[in-house]
Structures are given as C-alpha cells and as structure tokens.
Amino acid sequence: MIVENRFALLGLVMVALAALFGAAHLSLNVVAPADAAPVLTRVESALRVCPPPQGSGATQVAAFAPGAEGSDEAGSLGAAPNRPGAEPTEPLLEAGVPWSSTDVAADDEDASGTLVRADGVLAAGLEVTQTSTGGSAVTEVRCVEPSLSTWFVAPGGRDLDELRLHLSNADASAATVNVDLFATDGPAFAPETRGVQIGPADDLELSLMPLVETTGAVAVHVRTNSGRVAAALFAEGSKGGAAWVPATAEPATRHVIPGVVGGGGNKRLIVTAPGDDPATVKVRLTTPDGVVEDESLTSLDVPPAASARLSLEGPLDKRPATVVVESDRPVVAGIAVERSGGDDVAYSSAVDPLESGPNARAVAPATGKGTTSLLLGAPQEAAVVRLTPIDKDGVAGEPVVLTVEAATTVEPELDPTGGGTTWVVEALEGGPVHAARSLAHDGSLSILPLPPAPSEVPLPRVADSLTSIVP
Fold this sequence. Notes:
This protein has helices spanning 6-28, 209-212, 313-316, 466-469, and strands at 40-42, 45-50, 58-64, 75-81, 99-101, 114-120, 127-134, 137-142, 149-155, 160-169, 175-183, 186-188, 196-198, 202-207, 217-226, 230-237, 242-245, 252-260, 267-273, 279-287, 290-291, 300-302, 306-311, 321-338, 345-349, 361-364, 371-378, 383-390, 400-404, 408-410, 422-430, 434-441, 444-450, 456-458. Helices cover 7% and strands 47% of the residues. It is mainly beta. The model has no long low-confidence stretch (mean pLDDT 89). The radius of gyration is 24 Å and the shape is globular. It contains four helices and 34 strands. It has a domain at 253-347: TM1070-like (Hypothetical Protein Tm1070, Chain: A). The strands form eight sheets. Strands 18, 19, 20, 21, 22, 23, 24 and 25 form an eight-stranded antiparallel β-sheet that branches.
C-alpha cells in the first residue's frame, strides 16, 4: 500500500530526514558562543604570484618566512616561472633566512609571472615582493595569493600614458575573468573586459587606457567567473615615472591607508563608490603632529558607481601621514603620492591593521637596492611596536621598540636602512597600527603597504546550521 501511495512514501521520507537531522543535532551540539576564543591552525602551505617584470632593468624576487615560534618543523621554499613544466629553483630549507633570486623573473619579451611556493615552517608568516631597478627608476610590488576578487584605485588617463592590468593563472585549469572599471563619470567597460579567458599556467596583459583616457581617477575590480587569478596593475605617468599600484581592501565604510611619505609634491586621495548610491566621505589625516584640521577634508561627495579624488597637498604641508577614510556607503580607496616636481609617482592603498593576536606581525623583505624607511600610523589608540632588522644571513639585529602615540604617524630613524635588510614589524601592545615601507633609489620612489603575515590563522567559526551537519 505504501509503495502504491506516493504521498505515504513522501511522508516516510520526510520522517526519516527529520530523524536524521535531529540525531545529528543532538550528537554534535555545535553552537559556538559569540565570545568563544578563535581556534588557530598553523599555516602549512603558501602560494604567491609575482607579475611579469616591467621595463628593462634588473628584477629581484625576495621572500622571508619567520616561521612559527618554537617549531622544529621542516619546510621548503622555491620559485619557478609561471609556465607549464617550469623547473623550480633550488629550495630554501631554513626559516628565518632571507631568500632572493634575480634569475627566476627574467625581464625579456616572453617574461612570465613568478610562482613562489612554500610548505611547512617556511609557509608560516611568508611574505614575497618583487623589485625592479632600471636607470634611476625603482618599482616594487607585493606578490599575492591568487583570489576571486581584487580591487585597485589609480589616476585616470589625464595623468597617465599607460595603465596595464596583468593577470596570472597559476592553477591547472582555465580561469574566466571580468574587469569592471569605475571612472569619474561612471562605469566603463568593453567587450575585451568581459569573459577574459586565461589558460592554465598562463599570463595575460590587458591595456585599460582606451577606457580611461578622459577620466581623472578610476577603480578597477577584477573578479572571476571560474577559477582564480593573481592580478597586478602597472601605471606609467604622463610626466615620467612608473609604478605598480598595490591592491586595496574590499568595499567598506572605513579604510586606513598608510605610507604617505613627507616632502614636496601633490598627494591625491582617490575614492570610489561602486554601489548604486552616492557616498559622502570624511577624511582624517594623522601626522607626526597629530590630526590635521581642514575644511576640505570634512565632506567629499562621490557619485554612484563612480570615482572622485581629493588633493591633500595643502593640508599635509610636506608631512608624512596615515589617511583614514570614513563613509556612509561602502567605498574603496587609495592614494597617489608625487615627488617634488611631479616626475615620479608612487601609490599606497588601504591595508589590514597589525594588532595583538595572529595578525600582530608584518614582514618587509629586502629590496637589494635603494634606501628604505618605515611609516607607522596609530589612528585610534597608542601602540607599542617592535622593529627587527634581519641581515642577508638571517642574523637578527638589535630590535627597535617604540610607541606610536594615538592619532599620529611615526617615521622612525632606522640603522641600517639599506636595501639588503629585511624588517619584521610586530605590534606588541595597544593599537591597532598600520604600516608601510617606502623605497627610494636615485630620485625614484616606491611605497609598499604591509599587511599582516600570520603564521597561524583562525578556523571558520562553527554554527548550528545545515552546513555544520551536512559535509
């Protein structure tokens, strides 16, 4: 009778499912309290992708992994071009020793991205950068993990001769990418930015200049429909100079941008409201002298799905700064920093803070050339920070412990400051603190925001839901 009556059969199935989920609920009892401490797990593997080098200068890929404190675990780190069947370099096997290579990222016509892979103790706290020097120019870019979504903000075609997007697919399957642009007069797109196909172990270069020639500022959003990519944006200024534009934080109502160096030259804040509503933005500048008070910072109106920019040259008056952006709608933000005369531009972007816990540490690998400095901002509460230099042999120098007072920015005097030094930045108390490293070489400037480089990451919080019962 049950077999012949489909409604009776459906009722039995529902009863069985209810019994199954009820038993699972009673046996698991996995409701986590809201104030439960996060469960941390060791970072055991890492992949970083450096974009193809630009220009004709020498290029160095550098990496540093402090490892996990007290761990005797083994590990390895090696690099290879992003090409099918490429042979990796001889691996580094010891954490706490800087690694670099000038061969893996050859800047020829067939240059590819560079893949840096690490496992075990050498994946914990790993940071990788790529520095290129040619003539008097210097460029530096952080090598990133492939992702599904990446944001950039940059000047538009009025200030640039070229804006190139580089996409690297490090996986064994193809990726499909859409590129959205938000200019000062609204969205910009073309068939070439939709459904872009990138094959396995392949790189693609895409010029964005035809879409931004008449705009003063632009946000670029790289998102994948399938697969994942490592994205990098390279800008060539119309007055000379070229630099990588660092990726910025996802849309939010508050951002902190470190690394605005002092000295002459304009500093332009770029803010984009990617949603359907306009945004009203307030800007706060923290300098060595405290917070800057200026009417121009109290209200910046950003049209919907568009970008706007604000000059900070007058309020800053040649002082270094950390920029705090607060908005009534989610926005993305970044800053362009000109050197005196405007013939060279560097870029900084919003970055996650360093604070007590797994995100207390950041790493700035050695650059090889140039003079480096660190800029630290504490926009909320005072922070105690430790700066540790590491030489090329992995020997730690005397740490510098300093206090960054609340609502100030500090550029400490460091010795040594040469490009052969790796710096480890640790937030010890208070904060949060936001950090960046600047690099100067023969009149050229580069800025590298320093995100946390954790050796442990929190596991996702378990909740009482279907996803916690059914694998």
